[in-house]
Design a protein that fits this description.
alpha/beta; 5-stranded mixed β-sheet; about 30% helix; 7 helices; Purple Acid Phosphatase, chain A, domain 2; globular
Length: about 220
């Protein structure tokens, strides 16, 4: 049995299927995703259905969390600091009760004890116990400022993985503009599939990277992607 950890899918279900084939996925294999299952890409509901079909596990991504907030706004009329994007409202309106339950059940992190590995979407601030990490930064962390605090902004400091010293390996996503990040104890797997680049997996225990190309660019890439 192998464990296949997959980067940000963002609704790219065809590429997800192709990546599983490239990884020689077998029914007994464990599939784990680093979050951002939905939004921006062509078939968010298809990705959720495939994850259920596989019995795969995933952590919560910032876009998954945003969809949950949109649902709360739609249901309860909660105030929002800026108008919701029409495409986000349309996506949320199409989700089934099963889809919502699936998103709501996603944890902020997963531990793969057999591989001494932690899976999180954004990252962890070095020197802070996992249980004491800021949930917002678990979803959105990109860099560490000179004072050692975490930031979601790429320009605020150095990549968090570059200063993380273990001992546990961390697999994460979220930062597409940085591409594949290889650090001594952290590996960033968001290689920008939804932006027309690649969808990437890391296979354990063999520690092998596998990527498949995107069929096309489904969304424009931004500075904070």
């Amino acid at each position: 049995m192998k464990t296949i950890v997959i980067g940000d899918v963002h609704g790219c279900v065809d590429e997800l299927r192709a990546l599983l084939v490239a990884c020689e996925h077998a029914p007994e294999d464990q599939v784990v995703l680093v979050g951002d299952l939905v939004a921006k890409g062509p078939d968010s509901r298809g990705v959720l259905a495939l994850v259920r079909e596989l019995g795969a596990r995933s952590v919560l991504g910032n876009h998954d969390a945003h969809l949950l907030r949109v649902r709360a706004i739609q249901e309860h009329g909660s105030p929002t600091p800026k108008p919701l994007k029409p495409e986000t409202v349309a996506l949320a309106s199409n989700f089934s009760a099963e889809d919502w339950a699936q998103l709501a059940a996603l944890p902020l992190w997963l531990t793969l004890d057999q591989h001494d590995t932690l899976v999180v979407h954004g990252g962890i601030v070095p020197g802070i116990a996992l249980e004491q990490q800021d949930p917002d930064l678990l979803l959105n962390l990109r860099t560490i400022k000179p004072d050692g605090s975490g930031s979601r902004r790429p320009e605020d400091g150095v990549l968090w993985g570059s200063v993380y010293q273990g001992p546990q390996q961390v697999l994460f996503g979220h930062h597409a503009t940085a591409g594949l990040q290889r650090h001594p104890f952290a590996l960033g797997l968001d290689t920008g599939c939804v932006y027309g680049r690649e969808l990437t997996a890391f296979i354990l225990p063999e520690r092998r990277l596998v990527s498949v190309p995107a069929r096309r660019a489904y969304a424009p890439i931004g500075g904070n992607a």
